[in-house]
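Blackboard transcription, Thursday session:
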Amino acid sequence: MNLLVCCKIVPDLDRLSLGDWVIEGQGRIDTDYVRNMINPFDESALEMALRLSDGPGLTALTIGGRMADPFLKTLLALRFERAVRIETPADRRFCPDWIAALIAAFVARSPQDVLILGRQSGEGDNAKTPLLVAELLKRPCITEVLRIEAAAECLRVTSQVDAGLLVQAVRPPLVLSVGNAAGTALRVPTLKQRMLSGKQRIEVIDADSFGLEAVRASAGQDYVLDGMTLVSHRRAGRIVAGADARATARTLYAECLKQRLEAL
Amino acid sequence: MPISREQIVKELIQLLGQDQVVTDEQVLKLSSVDRFRRYEELNGVFALPIPAAVVYVQSTAEVQAVLMFANKNRINVVPRTGHSATEGGLETAVENSIVVDGSRMNRILKLDTYNMQITCQCGTPLQAVEDALRAQGYTAGHSPQSKPLAQMGGLVATRSIGQFSTLYGGIEDMVVGLEAVFPNGKVCRIKNVPRRAAGPDIRHIVIGNEGFLCFITEVTVKIFKYQPENNIFLGYSLEHMKTGFEILREVMVNGYRPSVARLYDPEDGAYHFSHFADGKCVLIFMAEGPRGITEATAKAIEEIVARYSECKQVETRIIKNWFDNLNWGPDKVAEERIEIMATKNIGNTTEISANWEVIDQIYQNACKRLREEIPDLTLVGGHSSHSYLNGTNLYFVHYYNLVDIRPEEEITKYHQPIKKIIVEETLKLGGTMCHHHGVGKHRAEWIKDEYGSSYYMLETLKKAFDPNGIMNIGTIIPMP
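(Written on the board underneath:)
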């Protein structure tokens, strides 16, 4: 089974202080100076793929510049058979249509049974790409995937739905959009694994070679960043104080816990 | 005859009252370890003897009472404040220990901006000290990664150092005076003066004693004017560590004192700087102080670096952003715990120092041996972060996957063998095995090699101040 995992290398926005959120020329927030990371949803997707296959048939695909290469080298060390980067210097944050078109075009060139993508990235937060890819490839798509297991001639996919967890046995081809899956942190390659994969090349494909300039030209044109508002996420809270620990505990129980516990 | 665990607790309650004596099982378990055994702790494995009680002292008199009780009954005492130690110094090595926690002695006693010093109780968080100083335009100049966690007593007891040490020095350069309680109950105060030549500098009996001689109850440290508006950041990528060491040396021997002077190797650098220096070493400086000095320092560094064609300057904002995210607070500790359990990958550090002529060789030798001899390594690298006129430190960073082990084997299979290699390679070339984390319990086995003939002085101090051997057994000097 050929498995394609699409991953995006993004700036670690947690490392920006409040003062760093400045709109610069061309309506852009400059994050080039911030350390990068694999988009966490995509990291889950990559780990899920590794749990399905020990390497054969696994391809990791990203779209972007050379700054993604250290991450792709890590994936080769983790035994991904191929690591592919579609080269583009363009700002891709608000262009899910173009990104989806590039992924679909890549799949047309290099057929894949299953595509696994993170549902969204913190950078653009569009949450559209997996759905658009499925649409373009005319494949079924399962969203909010939490677990993928191999079964006889099919995959057992667990996903989050409104009513709880849904487990489906599905046959490829299909697209899986990974949600907030606990326990799927990407494993870490050893130095030995890095050394063994050292000669493997990252495949770089020019985005223009797919002939999708028209899609690119129209993508993202309806977004103009002209302002930002700080959203406060402070949680309600109060400080419980008493003369000593015992008195504090009594106050805590009487005023904060008793009513809740009795309601259980 | 040793008294029972129950009797110890009963007597402590009589001395301090019920509220200050904690015997909750979970608290006791967590108090039997520090960060050295965090993988065991994460897995709920507590292999060491669990202390009889954790006592939260609130005054020097209470410390005195507890130590005298312990000394009389030969009970091991483990002093602590912020509980952020990394080398096993807070482990309770023997049965029925008493952990004496000074974190409730947390008041700033005097902020003296005329004489440029601040006096605090031992449990005052460094962050609180720095916040109080910043509010008035001053700084402690002490900024270890543990600043959000560490407290003043522990920082002095472990001979801490901060990220701005090249300008401000280590904690030993900042401590003016202090108060400490010895196991026989003697309270000693060392007065706050600029300098004195009245015999040996006895501050150094206390600074770095890691609780194996006394309990530090109060410290007075220097303060400095805080002038961040003058800070200048400089950063470079380069090919070789050896070149980086040469540049650090040139900066130091020519008399410049940037507050930050750091050199990362490609492996350690990749963790922090892959977005601009993949596969390269990274050199970072920050000049701090009055504008004339920062400008002259930065200009001189730029001139020195310019002589090495392999160095490429990087954007200042990269360095500033890295710096803004360097410290370890409770949030990062919590994040790390989740990551360790999710990935079964853990990282530790070992810090040494040596003279310029051998530092690169130690770095090369240790890294080579680690790669050859330690299984499942995922990262071996390091950085120099504190430079001096005659040499620099090396902060080895080592990460490994935890493969086929029980939690308590993390230390025996990986952590301690790694430490052993680094210590051996350092001592072989005349360096010191501990730069700023202290000896703790896990480097104590090499203490005689570290000290050589001067071990006599260390051993004599222990015998003189703690003849019953009740202070933090197994720390600095191994258990008999």
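Lecturer's comment: The CA atoms of residues 84 and 203 of chain A lie 5 Å apart.
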